[in-house]
Design brief:
Radius of gyration: 24 Å
Largest sheet: 8 strands, mixed
Shape: elongated
Number of helices: 13
Length: about 400
């Protein structure tokens, strides 16, 4: 996504650009210039390590404001709180593994991280690091925590890295960071009530065993976070215990397909949009044993019956004008998803083949196709689930605004 030069998409917005110590810091000078060209007023804060890669005077000259480089010794009494009170958004580019970890865990031992800690508005972070660092479990946990906390991550991308190697970890291009920054001021779903389902349902065999789906709920949770970011009132119906969501999300915990159906259907009169991302069981045991089945008694005979169809039931209950999006997790092709889009009365289906690398249950990425009722398919590239959520919500806004 590129932002046209001289298009004032950030007109009169007050932005703090935070620069940390990665090779990609040299791009921050151009990024500052582009943010100013699209209308923003920019001030900068730099870590000590960032000064190894780009000069303080370069940023000061471009922005017209002295760059903050330390918590101590500047003319201001409290530079980090002063910046935080002034800013409408903070952009951290590049965001090194170290800075991601600090922000994710609430550490604030330098001017940049202290400014973020003192700020209660939108924060955009553009990770940049070597592939091995990006893939570390600790880094993945930090990224997930940042996303849950509402931080907006843009990138990284795959490409040439410092040191002559190539792989995932290259900082997003300045134009894409500008576009991501503009989007945090998006209120396109203000006044809209969005219901989201997430996770895999569990259908009891006995008090300790169940038939279930493998869904982690990550895709649905990402959709809920994105809807909140756009100003929506969000109701999240999830099977995942202890999920961390923004305080404004109404989270309802359920277990079975019947539980989910009852909760979702009961909300049919109060919602404007429904995104049913949960992996709901198609079948359930017709009767659950009242006590734990004993191994000594041999394999039980389990008779299955259809579970409630949450999506179909909601379509039958909502008023005209409610936007409904279904999900289809398939294996070996998307033909059944195409049929679902045509027959269910939804606005579109988001389908993926869970056998594809990076697109299965529990991953942080997804490769999906958006399927319209007329059979039209738009295949998206492999993206993070948050990026997929953004595409989904943008499509919903487009449908509700223009009808297509």
């Amino acid at each position: 996504m590129n932002t046209e030069k001289c298009n004032p998409v950030l007109e009169a917005r007050r932005l703090v650009l935070g620069i940390s110590g990665g090779v990609a810091a040299y791009k921050a000078v151009y990024l500052a210039r582009r943010l100013i060209e699209v209308g923003a007023e920019v001030r900068t804060v730099m870590t000590t390590a960032a000064l190894r890669f780009v000069g303080e005077r370069s940023l000061s000259a471009v922005t017209g404001h002295r760059a903050v480089t330390s918590l101590f010794g500047d003319t201001g009494v409290s530079p980090h709180t002063e910046l935080a009170r002034w800013a409408e958004a903070i952009v951290v580019a590049p965001a090194t593994s170290n800075v991601l970890a600090k922000v994710a865990n609430g550490l604030s031992d330098d001017a940049l991280t202290a400014t973020v800690a003192a700020f209660d508005g939108p924060v955009v972070m553009a990770p940049a690091m070597h592939t091995e660092m990006w893939q570390q479990p600790a880094c993945r946990r930090n990224v997930e925590r940042l996303s849950r906390d509402g931080r907006r991550l843009v990138g990284p991308e795959s490409g040439a890295l410092a040191g002559g190697d190539s792989g995932m970890g290259r900082m997003a291009e300045p134009e894409d960071i500008v576009a991501a920054t503009a989007s945090v001021f998006d209120s396109s779903m203000s006044g809209v009530t969005v219901l989201v389902t997430a996770g895999g349902t569990r259908e009891a065999i006995d008090p300790v065993r169940y038939v279930g789906n493998r869904s982690s709920g990550k895709m649905g949770h990402a959709v809920a976070v994105e809807a909140v970011r756009r100003g929506a009132r969000v109701i999240l119906v999830t099977t995942v215990a202890g999920v961390s969501m923004p305080d404004t999300v109404e989270t309802v915990r359920v277990e079975s397909a019947a539980d989910m159906a009852a909760e979702v259907w009961s909300r049919s009169s109060e919602i404007d949009v429904a995104v049913l991302a949960a992996a709901v069981a198609d079948f359930r045991p017709s009767a659950a044993a009242p006590t734990k089945l004993a191994r000594a008694d041999g394999p039980p005979r389990i008779v299955l019956e259809p579970a409630p169809n949450v999506l179909s039931g909601l379509v039958q209950r909502v008023a005209s004008g409610v936007t409904i999006v279904g999900f289809a997790a398939e294996t070996g092709g998307l033909d059944r998803a195409v049929g679902k889009a045509a027959s269910y009365g939804v606005d579109f289906i988001v389908a993926n083949d869970v056998t594809m690398p990076g697109s299965g249950f529990g991953t942080d990425t997804n490769q999906v196709s958006i399927i319209s009722p007329d059979g039209t398919q738009e295949r998206l590239a492999l993206m993070t689930k948050l990026e997929v959520a953004r595409v989904i919500m943008s499509r919903i806004v487009e449908l509700r605004t223009h009808g297509g």
